[in-house]
């Protein structure tokens, strides 16, 4: 039997989200039914609800930063039990057979791609719906355990913002002796600063202004510079091993690439809606790299949660009611949040 649950959905592109009901599938043999307690609001939700990244599926229930408690498990489930604290991130399935899936890189599935938590079609042919809802049913292999040391409300954003920054920082070997610049101190950026500092790197924040400097230093940065000041790019030329760009607006990539050392990498995790442009000479002169990264696989997401629990790293959040979602969207677009909105799903 399917379950009818309350949710908040965008009925059409760019339309305000509104309260509705959706059907969750019956709990299958390997499924976990989760009572969602908190759901983070990611800028990706806004891009997709407003079709900034292309044609989308409506009505859309966004949300891929999900934290809750297991309410029911299928007869074949071995990883979780009723009462466990769990999370669901950006994907709920993949082909499971390609080389990437077998290597735990499900986010790079080549057998049809991952099935996203919302704005996608599941293997049952039905649209997926995300975390702005009271319950969700997910295969146990795409659920992660939230350690006891992490409160569920500050853990929810880790399922996207946390893993989106942790994965590239680990891949590009952020750690002692490395200088890391984080571009933008927002939902992604503030977690990038916390994680890079906890990994042992020397962290610099590059932001448009010095408005959030005190916050950046408290979060773990050693330095903080305003990119609106041309002198910043003169003074920091050739400084960084890694630049983690978390903003989703086009930048002067040639200027930022000049800040890398030889063999340095600029990794983009904010995805602009518009094309970006660079001069190849900006990378060729010092064997610099311009790259990107997409979330993380299930094993790495669990590793990230365990790391954050060990280092007491939760997101900085503003808890809101469900009827504040549309206001929160506007505030995210205007960079008016420190640093992640989280919906108390009991208010849906």
Automatic annotation (TrEMBL):
The keyword Zinc is annotated on this UniProt entry: yes
PROSITE patterns cross-referenced by the UniProt entry: ADH_ZINC (PS00059)
One GO molecular-function entry: zinc ion binding
InterPro entries associated with the record: ADH-like_C, ADH-like_N, ADH_Zn_CS, CAD-like, ER, GroES-like_sf, NAD(P)-bd_dom_sf
Residue ranges annotated for the Enoyl reductase (ER) domain, each copy included: 15-343
Sorted UniProt keywords: Metal-binding, Oxidoreductase, Zinc
Keyword Transcription: no
Record field: catalytic activity: a primary alcohol + NADP(+) = an aldehyde + NADPH + H(+)
Domain of life: Bacteria
Cofactor(s) essential for the protein: Zn(2+)
Family annotation (Pfam families): ADH_N, ADH_zinc_N
Entry-linked Gene3D superfamilies: Medium-chain alcohol dehydrogenases, catalytic domain, NAD(P)-binding Rossmann-like Domain
The protein's Enzyme Commission number: 1.1.1.2
PANTHER family per record: ALDEHYDE REDUCTASE
Family in the record: Belongs to the zinc-containing alcohol dehydrogenase family.
Entry protein name: alcohol dehydrogenase (NADP(+))
Lineage: Bacteria, Bacillati, Actinomycetota, Actinomycetes, Kitasatosporales
